[in-house]
């Protein structure tokens, strides 16, 4: 049995011590939104609740995740909590230094590159995609903004690809797709709504985003991620290795839960991730994701105007809104946090930061296709950003956490 551990440290100059919903709902755009008035605004952010986080990670393990971890950077003070293993074969304890596949957190990286190109005058958000990629899409009303906000109406090809999780994965594990191959799969199905009419999560949108990056720059997305984000932020453990199947260096193995109850977990670590590419193929660590989202919300990656554009929200459900490649979650204590979730075979990721970028959380469980674990990992946001629950909440029955669903992969496929 591997027990949870917690470590804290303080950064002095340099740091000393140093994650999906479906079926996707078509939600009409509502413009800029604010947390509901019923929520009570906090006087000040409470300290992270390490004990509460540890309990959540242990619950995820009991529900089938081989390992789970969380890293909080609280304005330089770092909290690390781990539970379980990163490799079932060796029994090695999972570590917040482990690299892993971040899944749809990649979408925020892709959006940042395109917003930087908008800052440079090389892209207009309200210009049709077909202006830059002539003939790609069947409707020239679909704009870059529609793509980045999941309001294009483009069908998500992963619905069919992963209707059966394990067999679907094995069919594409070593396959290399071109971007146009994936767009063609999407266009074989009717669109979900008229351009701009509703929110409907689709990986196709960020495949198109990758195509835009490569067309406008003349470089691969790997080159642009490295030049514009990885190198400037010194994200030394963040990679885009597509179509290579291996995660370099120390990493957490990913375990895909079978569609058949009781069947063995499938080690899904090695894959091209070609089905995802600019929608979900980045590899990173908790440190690097905390650094990335903190820098983004502090205005270090895009101009103030583009960050404002990125945070024009469309309501998704009672606690979640979506901007341009960025999610907002409203918590029980009145705090809103900003980031993205990520699901890729074998990994659930949550990476969020506060509006001022001063407190960031990355949480990971190295399993997927397990709704119980997904819902449990969602709960990491509350102790990380709201601290300990009020005494009245602790003495009564535990409050029901909002339920997550599989939006990042196959959003219209019901699991479990």
Description:
The protein is an alpha+beta fold and 416 residues long. The chain is built from 14 helices and 16 strands. It has helices at 50-62, 106-119, 129-132, 144-148, 158-161, 165-172, 179-187, 203-217, 221-230, 286-297, 304-310, 371-378, 381-385, 391-395, and strands at 5-12, 14-15, 67-74, 77-87, 92-93, 100-101, 255-256, 266-267, 283-284, 314-315, 320-322, 327-330, 336-344, 347-354, 359-365, 367-368. A hairpin with a 4-residue loop joins strand 10 (314-315) and strand 11 (320-322). The model is unreliable at 1-5, 7-25 and 30-43 (pLDDT under 50).
Secondary-structure blueprint:
Blueprint: E1 5-12, E2 14-15, H1 50-62, E3 67-74, E4 77-87, E5 92-93, E6 100-101, H2 106-119, H3 129-132, H4 144-148, H5 158-161, H6 165-172, H7 179-187, H8 203-217, H9 221-230, E7 255-256, E8 266-267, E9 283-284, H10 286-297, H11 304-310, E10 314-315, E11 320-322, E12 327-330, E13 336-344, E14 347-354, E15 359-365, E16 367-368, H12 371-378, H13 381-385, H14 391-395
Helix pairs in contact: 1-12, 2-8, 2-9, 7-8
């Amino acid at each position: 049995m591997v027990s949870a551990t917690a470590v804290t440290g303080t950064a002095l100059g340099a740091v000393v011590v140093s994650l999906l919903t479906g079926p996707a709902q078509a939600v009409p755009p509502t413009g800029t939104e604010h947390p509901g008035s019923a929520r009570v605004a906090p006087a000040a952010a409470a300290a992270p609740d390490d004990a509460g986080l540890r309990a959540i990670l242990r619950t995820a393990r009991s529900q089938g995740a081989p390992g789970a971890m969380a890293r909080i950077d609280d304005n330089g003070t770092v909290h690390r909590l781990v539970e379980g293993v990163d490799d079932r074969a060796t029994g090695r304890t999972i570590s917040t230094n482990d690299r892993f596949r971040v899944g749809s957190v990649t979408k925020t990286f892709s959006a940042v590159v395109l917003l930087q190109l908008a800052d440079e005058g090389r892209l207009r958000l309200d210009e049709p995609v077909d202006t830059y990629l002539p003939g790609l899409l069947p409707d020239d009303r679909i704009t870059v903004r529609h793509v980045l906000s999941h309001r294009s109406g483009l069908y998500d090809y992963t619905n069919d690809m992963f209707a059966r999780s394990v067999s679907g994965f094995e069919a594409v594990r070593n396959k290399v797709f071109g971007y146009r191959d994936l767009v063609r799969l999407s266009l074989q199905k009717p669109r979900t709504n008229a351009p701009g009419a509703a929110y409907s999560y689709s990986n196709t949108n960020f495949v198109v985003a990758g195509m835009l990056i490569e067309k406008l720059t003349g470089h691969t997305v790997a080159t642009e991620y490295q030049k514009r984000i990885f190198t400037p932020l010194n994200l030394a453990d963040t990679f885009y290795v597509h179509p290579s199947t291996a995660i370099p260096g120390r990493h957490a193995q990913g375990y895909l839960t079978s569609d058949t109850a009781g069947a063995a977990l499938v080690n899904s670590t090695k894959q091209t991730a070609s089905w995802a590419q600019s929608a979900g193929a980045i590899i990173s660590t908790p440190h690097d994701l905390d650094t990335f989202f903190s820098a983004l919300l502090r205005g270090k990656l895009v101009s103030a105007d583009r960050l404002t554009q990125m945070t024009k929200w469309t309501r998704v459900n009672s606690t979640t809104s979506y901007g341009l490649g960025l999610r907002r979650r409203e918590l029980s204590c009145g705090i809103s946090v900003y980031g993205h979730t990520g699901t890729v075979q074998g990994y659930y990721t949550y990476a969020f930061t506060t509006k001022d970028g001063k407190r960031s959380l990355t949480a990971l469980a190295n399993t997927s296709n397990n709704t119980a674990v997904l819902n449990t990992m969602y709960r990491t946001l509350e102790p990380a950003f709201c601290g300990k629950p009020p005494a009245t909440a602790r003495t009564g029955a535990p409050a029901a956490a909002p339920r997550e669903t599989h939006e990042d992969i196959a959003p219209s496929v019901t699991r479990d």
